C-alpha cells in the first residue's frame, strides 16, 4: 500500500531554510543529513545541488521546487499501476536504484506536480533484492 510521507521543499541553502522555518514557525530538525533535513511537523528540506546531482539535471526557472513524497513496499507493482492509469506518464526519471539502495521513481501528475515514490525502508526487502537482483517478489 502506498503511504504519503512528507512534502519536500527543494531549497538553495539548507542552513538558511532551516533557520527560516525554525525562527518563523518553531520547526526543529529531527533528522539532519547535511543536504537533506526532516523538520518537526513532517516538512523536509533538500538542498538544490543535492537534488540536481541525484536527478542528473538542473532545475529550470519556473519548475516545481516541491515534491510530494510517498513510499510503497512493491514499487514494481506501483510502476505498473501508474502506467495503466496514465497510459503515458511523464517521468522525471523511471524506476531506478537510489543512492540508499532503495528503488525510486519520480513523475509528474496530470497538473504538473512532482511526485516521488520510493521503496519502503525494508532492510529485509532491500537485502533480498541485492542478493537476488531479478526478484521483485514481496518479502
Calculate the mean pLDDT score and round it.
85
Strand content bin: 35-45%
Give the SSE order as H and E letters.
EHEEEHEHEEEH
Largest pleated sheet? 8 strands, mixed
The total of helices stands at 4
How far from one another are the termini?
A: 14 Å
Percent helix, as a range, is 25-40%
The helix/strand class is: alpha+beta
Unreliable stretches: 135-139
What is the CA-based Rg, rounded?
A: 16 Å
Specify the oligomeric state.
single chain
Shape: globular
Strand elements, count: 8
- Describe the strand arrangement of the main beta sheet, using strand numbers: 2-3-4-1-5-8-7-6
Description:
- With 139 residues, the protein is an alpha+beta fold.
- Helices cover 29% and strands 35% of the residues.
- It is built from 4 helices and 8 strands.
- Strands 2-3-4-1-5-8-7-6 form an 8-stranded mixed β-sheet.
- Strand 7 and strand 8 form a beta hairpin.
- The chain is globular and about 45 Å long.
Tell me briefly what this model is:
This protein is an alpha+beta fold.
Helix and strand arrangement:
Elements: E1 3-11, H1 14-25, E2 29-32, E3 36-39, E4 43-47, H2 48-55, E5 66-72, H3 75-86, E6 90-97, E7 103-108, E8 114-119, H4 123-131
Parallel strand pairs: 1-4, 5-8
Antiparallel strand pairs: 1-5, 2-3, 3-4, 6-7, 7-8
Kindly list the characteristics that best describe this protein:
139 residues; alpha+beta; 8-stranded mixed sheet; globular
Amino acid at each position: 500500500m502506498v503511504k504519503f510521507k512528507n512534502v519536500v521543499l527543494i531549497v538553495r541553502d539548507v542552513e538558511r531554510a532551516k533557520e527560516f522555518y525554525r525562527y518563523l514557525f518553531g520547526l526543529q530538525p529531527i533528522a539532519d543529513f547535511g543536504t537533506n533535513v526532516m523538520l518537526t511537523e513532517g516538512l523536509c528540506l533538500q538542498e538544490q545541488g543535492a537534488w540536481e546531482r541525484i536527478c542528473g539535471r538542473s532545475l529550470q526557472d519556473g519548475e516545481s521546487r516541491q515534491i510530494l513524497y510517498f513510499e510503497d513496499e512493491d514499487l514494481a507493482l506501483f510502476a505498473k499501476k501508474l502506467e495503466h492509469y496514465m497510459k503515458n506518464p511523464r517521468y522525471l526519471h523511471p524506476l531506478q536504484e537510489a543512492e540508499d539502495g532503495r528503488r525510486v521513481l519520480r513523475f509528474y501528475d496530470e497538473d504538473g506536480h512532482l511526485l516521488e515514490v520510493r521503496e519502503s525502508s525494508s532492510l529485509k526487502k532491500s537485502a533480498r533484492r541485492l542478493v537476488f537482483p531479478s526478484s521483485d517478489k514481496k518479502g
